[in-house]
Amino acid sequence: MSMSASTATARASLAYPVIILGRDDSGKAHASFFPATDAQPASRAASLMGMFSLKADSDAVRSLLPKLPKGKLFDSGKAFVPFVKQDLYKQIAAHLPEADRAKAETVRAAPADVSQQGHAATPSNVPDDWSKILVGSLVLATDDPLEGWFEATVVELKPDNVLRLQWRHYLDLPPFNRKLEDVALLHPSIKL
User: Which of 13, 76, 100, 128 has CA 20 to 30 A from 49's CA?
Assistant: First the structure.
Protein backbone atom coordinates (compact mmCIF):
# COMPACT_ATOMS: atom_id res chain seq x y z
CA MET A 1 0.00 0.00 0.00
CA SER A 2 1.38 3.40 -0.91
CA MET A 3 1.69 6.24 1.58
CA SER A 4 -1.17 8.24 0.04
CA ALA A 5 -3.52 5.22 0.04
CA SER A 6 -2.81 4.48 3.71
CA THR A 7 -3.33 8.15 4.58
CA ALA A 8 -6.66 8.13 2.74
CA THR A 9 -7.72 4.94 4.56
CA ALA A 10 -6.75 6.41 7.92
CA ARG A 11 -8.74 9.60 7.19
CA ALA A 12 -11.81 7.60 6.17
CA SER A 13 -11.80 5.74 9.48
CA LEU A 14 -11.33 8.82 11.67
CA ALA A 15 -14.27 9.83 13.81
CA TYR A 16 -15.49 13.40 13.40
CA PRO A 17 -17.55 15.59 15.68
CA VAL A 18 -21.26 15.49 14.90
CA ILE A 19 -23.91 18.21 14.82
CA ILE A 20 -27.48 17.25 15.66
CA LEU A 21 -30.18 19.58 14.39
CA GLY A 22 -33.92 19.71 13.96
CA ARG A 23 -37.08 21.62 14.76
CA ASP A 24 -39.39 20.89 17.67
CA ASP A 25 -43.20 20.76 17.66
CA SER A 26 -43.30 24.57 17.89
CA GLY A 27 -40.97 25.02 14.92
CA LYS A 28 -38.10 26.28 17.10
CA ALA A 29 -34.61 25.48 15.85
CA HIS A 30 -32.37 23.18 17.90
CA ALA A 31 -28.75 22.27 17.24
CA SER A 32 -25.69 21.21 19.20
CA PHE A 33 -22.38 19.53 18.63
CA PHE A 34 -21.03 16.32 20.07
CA PRO A 35 -17.32 15.46 20.15
CA ALA A 36 -15.94 12.71 17.93
CA THR A 37 -15.90 10.29 20.88
CA ASP A 38 -19.72 10.61 21.08
CA ALA A 39 -20.37 10.61 17.32
CA GLN A 40 -22.06 7.20 17.08
CA PRO A 41 -24.39 7.52 20.10
CA ALA A 42 -25.20 11.12 19.07
CA SER A 43 -26.16 9.98 15.57
CA ARG A 44 -28.36 7.24 17.05
CA ALA A 45 -29.96 9.84 19.37
CA ALA A 46 -30.71 12.09 16.39
CA SER A 47 -32.47 9.21 14.67
CA LEU A 48 -34.49 8.34 17.80
CA MET A 49 -35.54 11.98 18.20
CA GLY A 50 -36.49 12.58 14.56
CA MET A 51 -33.58 14.97 14.09
CA PHE A 52 -30.65 15.02 11.69
CA SER A 53 -26.98 14.32 12.30
CA LEU A 54 -24.29 16.03 10.29
CA LYS A 55 -20.69 14.81 10.39
CA ALA A 56 -18.22 17.70 10.78
CA ASP A 57 -15.92 16.28 8.11
CA SER A 58 -15.29 19.50 6.20
CA ASP A 59 -13.71 22.82 7.15
CA ALA A 60 -16.99 24.62 6.41
CA VAL A 61 -18.94 22.47 8.88
CA ARG A 62 -16.14 22.47 11.48
CA SER A 63 -16.14 26.30 11.39
CA LEU A 64 -19.71 26.19 12.80
CA LEU A 65 -18.79 24.09 15.86
CA PRO A 66 -17.59 27.01 18.06
CA LYS A 67 -20.93 28.75 17.49
CA LEU A 68 -22.92 25.80 18.88
CA PRO A 69 -23.66 24.66 22.41
CA LYS A 70 -22.36 21.23 23.35
CA GLY A 71 -25.11 18.62 23.48
CA LYS A 72 -25.66 16.10 26.22
CA LEU A 73 -26.38 12.38 25.86
CA PHE A 74 -28.80 10.63 28.20
CA ASP A 75 -28.89 7.01 29.34
CA SER A 76 -32.18 6.64 27.44
CA GLY A 77 -30.22 6.92 24.19
CA LYS A 78 -31.62 10.38 23.44
CA ALA A 79 -29.89 13.74 23.68
CA PHE A 80 -30.36 17.27 24.97
CA VAL A 81 -30.13 19.60 21.98
CA PRO A 82 -30.59 23.29 22.99
CA PHE A 83 -32.21 26.10 21.00
CA VAL A 84 -30.15 28.03 18.44
CA LYS A 85 -30.84 31.13 16.39
CA GLN A 86 -32.60 30.72 13.04
CA ASP A 87 -29.67 32.10 11.04
CA LEU A 88 -27.23 29.61 12.56
CA TYR A 89 -29.68 26.75 12.05
CA LYS A 90 -30.04 27.62 8.37
CA GLN A 91 -26.24 27.80 7.96
CA ILE A 92 -25.94 24.29 9.38
CA ALA A 93 -28.91 22.88 7.45
CA ALA A 94 -27.32 24.10 4.19
CA HIS A 95 -24.64 21.40 4.70
CA LEU A 96 -27.15 18.53 4.92
CA PRO A 97 -27.63 16.29 1.90
CA GLU A 98 -30.12 17.90 -0.47
CA ALA A 99 -32.83 15.33 0.30
CA ASP A 100 -32.69 16.22 4.02
CA ARG A 101 -32.63 20.03 3.68
CA ALA A 102 -36.37 20.44 3.16
CA LYS A 103 -37.13 17.91 5.90
CA ALA A 104 -34.93 19.88 8.32
CA GLU A 105 -37.28 22.85 7.90
CA THR A 106 -40.40 20.91 8.82
CA VAL A 107 -41.86 21.05 12.31
CA ARG A 108 -41.48 17.80 14.19
CA ALA A 109 -44.72 16.38 15.60
CA ALA A 110 -44.50 15.99 19.35
CA PRO A 111 -45.55 12.64 20.75
CA ALA A 112 -48.55 12.66 23.05
CA ASP A 113 -47.05 12.62 26.51
CA VAL A 114 -48.89 11.57 29.61
CA SER A 115 -47.31 11.30 33.03
CA GLN A 116 -47.51 8.25 35.26
CA GLN A 117 -50.51 9.85 36.98
CA GLY A 118 -52.33 10.29 33.67
CA HIS A 119 -51.99 14.08 33.55
CA ALA A 120 -51.21 15.66 30.22
CA ALA A 121 -47.84 17.41 30.10
CA THR A 122 -49.36 20.53 28.53
CA PRO A 123 -49.02 23.55 30.82
CA SER A 124 -52.26 24.93 32.18
CA ASN A 125 -51.00 27.80 34.29
CA VAL A 126 -48.10 30.09 35.06
CA PRO A 127 -47.97 30.47 38.86
CA ASP A 128 -46.90 33.80 40.33
CA ASP A 129 -45.76 32.22 43.61
CA TRP A 130 -44.10 28.92 44.50
CA SER A 131 -47.01 28.04 46.81
CA LYS A 132 -49.35 28.11 43.77
CA ILE A 133 -47.46 25.44 41.80
CA LEU A 134 -49.82 22.60 40.84
CA VAL A 135 -49.83 19.72 38.38
CA GLY A 136 -49.89 21.40 34.96
CA SER A 137 -47.96 24.50 36.07
CA LEU A 138 -45.26 25.84 33.79
CA VAL A 139 -41.91 26.54 35.51
CA LEU A 140 -38.26 26.91 34.51
CA ALA A 141 -35.68 24.22 35.24
CA THR A 142 -32.08 23.50 34.36
CA ASP A 143 -29.63 20.62 34.27
CA ASP A 144 -26.76 23.07 34.56
CA PRO A 145 -27.20 26.86 34.95
CA LEU A 146 -24.41 27.40 32.42
CA GLU A 147 -26.54 25.62 29.80
CA GLY A 148 -29.60 27.76 30.47
CA TRP A 149 -33.08 27.48 31.93
CA PHE A 150 -35.89 25.86 29.96
CA GLU A 151 -39.65 25.54 30.32
CA ALA A 152 -40.89 22.45 32.12
CA THR A 153 -44.38 21.28 33.05
CA VAL A 154 -45.16 19.92 36.51
CA VAL A 155 -46.54 16.39 36.04
CA GLU A 156 -46.56 15.30 39.70
CA LEU A 157 -46.20 16.82 43.19
CA LYS A 158 -44.09 14.50 45.34
CA PRO A 159 -43.37 14.53 49.09
CA ASP A 160 -40.68 16.79 50.59
CA ASN A 161 -41.28 19.63 48.09
CA VAL A 162 -40.10 17.58 45.11
CA LEU A 163 -41.63 18.22 41.69
CA ARG A 164 -41.80 15.68 38.88
CA LEU A 165 -41.21 17.67 35.68
CA GLN A 166 -41.29 17.12 31.93
CA TRP A 167 -39.41 19.39 29.53
CA ARG A 168 -42.01 21.35 27.57
CA HIS A 169 -40.15 21.24 24.26
CA TYR A 170 -38.32 17.94 24.75
CA LEU A 171 -41.26 15.58 25.21
CA ASP A 172 -39.21 12.61 24.11
CA LEU A 173 -36.90 12.97 27.14
CA PRO A 174 -37.96 11.22 30.34
CA PRO A 175 -39.56 13.12 33.25
CA PHE A 176 -37.20 14.19 36.03
CA ASN A 177 -37.34 15.41 39.64
CA ARG A 178 -36.34 18.81 41.06
CA LYS A 179 -36.68 20.26 44.54
CA LEU A 180 -39.11 23.19 44.70
CA GLU A 181 -36.26 25.60 45.50
CA ASP A 182 -34.40 24.46 42.35
CA VAL A 183 -37.03 25.71 39.89
CA ALA A 184 -37.75 29.26 38.75
CA LEU A 185 -41.01 30.97 37.91
CA LEU A 186 -41.86 32.69 34.66
CA HIS A 187 -42.98 36.29 34.74
CA PRO A 188 -46.76 36.28 35.37
CA SER A 189 -47.39 38.33 32.21
CA ILE A 190 -46.30 35.37 30.01
CA LYS A 191 -49.17 34.31 27.75
CA LEU A 192 -49.36 30.66 26.69
Answer: 13
